[in-house]
Amino acid sequence: MSCPEWESRKRHIDIGRGQTIAYVDTGKSDRVAVLVHGFTDSSWSFSLVEPHLQDMRLIMPDLRGHGASHRPEDAYSLGDFADDIVRLMGALGVRDALVAGHSLGAMVAMELAASRPDLVGALVTLSGCLKPEIDEMSPICLGVASLQDPIDPEDEFFGVWHACKEPVDAAFLAALARDAAEIPARLWRRVLEEIRSCDLTNRVPIIKQPSLIIHGSADPLFSVSQAGMLKRCLARSNMIELAGCGHNLHWEQPERVSRILREFETAIAGAAGDRDGSLSQ
């Protein structure tokens, strides 16, 4: 699917306070997954996995400040991002969903699972961690610090920003770069600082929902050891390490990641059915 076709599928909903969220909703099943993208991406981030999850209803929002959603001057904490999703799920009448997030989206998903367990039936993190350790002198931080408006989507910086360990379709990455270039440089810096200051160490242990950690063995941003720390803090979690994958594993191996998500959702649904059955006997 082309990016313009994806954009044409986006719906817009007023979540209150004059704020509008854009989202794609496949709306085909009562098996619901909310997919939360990473920093500077949009719902387009999940366009490669969507064809492999046709048996599920996928709700894929553009986070505030990203894609076609509202872009406030401030309020970019994990709580702010999570609150938008709470309002979106409320407007759509969705509860007890599987919520999966990538990178920043993983941290948002964890905050959502901790604060609203009634909405999150199961949690999946893709390239997530408890506490990012991103050095201010890293190529990523230096690159973001040097951005100036208008940002050129063909700037060589995006080769670093969207770096993948395995080949990814060039047109897909170019569309991501165009989305990212629409975000003002000041918001890049603002949100990056929010990410660097995040610490979920005291939030994650209260998450009791079934959880799955999916992490690339070659993730250059959040290490496997950081993912291991996350697993130790999540009470009901399993971890799958994808050999050779980098930070953007759902772009690098979309079919495999989709299969893992589908199998996890099926297992959770089966376990819930078993519990319901035992209670009724």
UniProtKB/TrEMBL annotation:
Pfam families in the record: Abhydrolase_6
Domain of life: Bacteria
Example of a GO cellular component annotation carried by this entry: membrane
InterPro entries: AB_hydrolase_1, AB_hydrolase_fold, AB_hydrolase_sf
Domain AB hydrolase-1: 34-259
Protein name: AB hydrolase-1 domain-containing protein
Species annotation: Mesorhizobium temperatum
Upper classification of the organism: Bacteria, Pseudomonadati, Pseudomonadota, Alphaproteobacteria, Hyphomicrobiales
